[in-house]
Every structure is written in structure tokens, then in C-alpha cells.
Amino acid sequence: MFGRRMIFLICSLFVVFVLLGVGKTPLPARAEQESEPLVTIIFFEMELREALRELALQTGVNIVMDENITGTVTLELEDTPLEKALQMILAGGGFSYRKVDDYYLVGLADPKNRIFADLAETEFYFFKNTKVSTVEALLPEAFRQNVRFDPETNVAAVTAPRGLRERIIADFKKIDIPRAQVRVRALVSEVQTEVIKEWGIDLFNWEFTSSLAKKPDWTAILDLAPGAIEVETDVFGLLHTKIRAMEKEGTAKIHADPVVQVADGKTADLFIGEERYLILDVYETYDRVEKVEAGTGLKVTPRVFEDRIELELTQTVSYFVDNNGSEPVVRVAEFGSTLRLIPGQTLL
Questions:
Q1: Residue 193 — left, alpha, or beta (φ > 0 → left; ψ -120 to 50 → alpha)?
Q2: Lower Cβ count inside 10 Å, N or C end of the chain?
Q3: Which CATH code fits 38-108?
Q4: Which pLDDT score, from 0 to 100, does residue 228 have?
């Protein structure tokens, strides 16, 4: 008769995805665009509107300003490209510019400004690894008026002048990164109580080819029989082989050997057992039937760090108990813990 003690063996390791890029035929080089005019000028506490007029006069490029352009500027420019000069002059007042045909439009980058539509452009960002609800919660308050989110398509629309738009998109890319994947393999087995009491380090007879600090992917030597060939395997494979041999001897039984892949911060739910449908209430016109499960369950939530994996484990063991001929009762035992492992390490 098997004891009811269950053993979970969890082997966690990183899954590495290798993406092979297909080479593309290089596109023909585009004709070089005309270089921007260079600006060499000194402004000292000059009115901003007057400084922009001087800039237009020196470069021969028309600069159109809205009525919000106010303030002063102190700046020294030497052989500075025109657009760089515009950025430096306008930065202090929160103003933006946009090139339209052969002139520059300068104004306040505020959606309430009547020329905002002429200053701004819309760019769509399609999130591949992150939900827009997460991004929306992290978005700074100063950028909210420039971004619209669509949870259904997981897309953000950014409407802003070029500089601000590029900054927001750059922040999106920092957030929208693939989550690390953890491969979890669990061995659910039932072992006789007498065998469990005898378990010790000698039962598995393992030795490691290198220290843990130098080589995280442990390797073990499995002695199948005295004088027989030695088979090299990982620790999980060693335990699996031992319990499989015990199963043939009738001292153990393997119920399941599931393998799941779960993303960092997500939860994998493993359950091995049986289910029964119980009639809980009987009415004149219908009966209320409920599904009840009993068995062994394991919830695993990995969190991946640079040098380790933290596993939040919740294990449940439940079984049906006869209730003197009436509806069966399910007894449940549950415990949880958080463990730190390295990739490739096995937990018993």
C-alpha cells in the first residue's frame, strides 16, 4: 500500500531562443540630402522672436512663429546646423519646430494651441511583449496628453512634435522587452513510506563534475549496478531514473511528468488527480451539480534575476474521504514557500 506522501521534483532552467536573421539585399543608396545651413552667432539676453529673425536672416530660411513665442535667450553658436540651433534656442521655453516644405514652423507644443496639429505628427507603436495597461500606468503625467492607448489592439498612438515623440517611443521600447522564459519540469510520484524513510544521499550516489560556483548546470554519475557502465545525466534525470526503477520494483509509482514553460512573473498551475460530479442540492425541477477535484497540485511563479531564479511554490494535496455513505468529503493540505535556485538546479 503506497503512502500518501507526494514528492515534487522541479527543475528550472532558462530557455534560450536563437533568432536567425535572413540577409536582405541592400537598398540602393539614397541621394544625399542638401546639408543644413550652419549658424555662427551670439545671443545675449535677446528676445526670442528677435533671435529667430536673426537666425532666418543669416541662413536665408523662413521661420514662421506663432503668437506664443516669448522670452529671452543667451547662447553662443559656432558652425551649428540649423535644426540643432533651433533645438537649443527653443528648449528653454518648451517650444517646438517642424519643417514644412521650405520653411520652419515654430510654436508652443501644447494640444490646446491652435497650430499644434501643424507642429505634431502621429506615430503608432504596436506593443509585442507588454500590455498597454501596464505602459499607461507607468507613463509620466507630462506625456499623457500626447498618448492614446487601445487595449483591444495593444497599440499606442503618440501625437507630438518630433523630439517629444521620439522620446516617448524610446521609453516604450525600454518597457516593451520580452520576458524571460523558465522551463519547469515536475515529477509527481508516490513512494512507499518505508522507502521514504530509507532515503538519504547514498540512495542517489551522485558526484558533481565541477563546483556549483563555476558550473551551474550540475552533472551526476548514475551507477546502474556494481561494475556496470556509468551513465552521465543531470540531477533531474538521475532522480527520474531512480524512481522509474523503483516503479518496476513495485515500491513507487509515477503519476505524471509534466513540462511547462512559464514567463517571468506568471504562474504555472499543475494538477494531477481525479474529479467527481456531486449532486449537492435536489429541487423539484432541477438538481445542482458541482465538480469537485482531489489530487496533487502545484503552482509555480518564477521571478528571474541576473544570477538566480526565485520560485514561489504553493503545493496542495487533497483526497476524498467517505462520509458514512453520504456525500464524500474532500480533505486538503496546503503549504507555500519561496525558494532561490540557479538555472539547472533541482528541488526535492
A1: alpha
A2: N
A3: 3.55.50.30
A4: 42
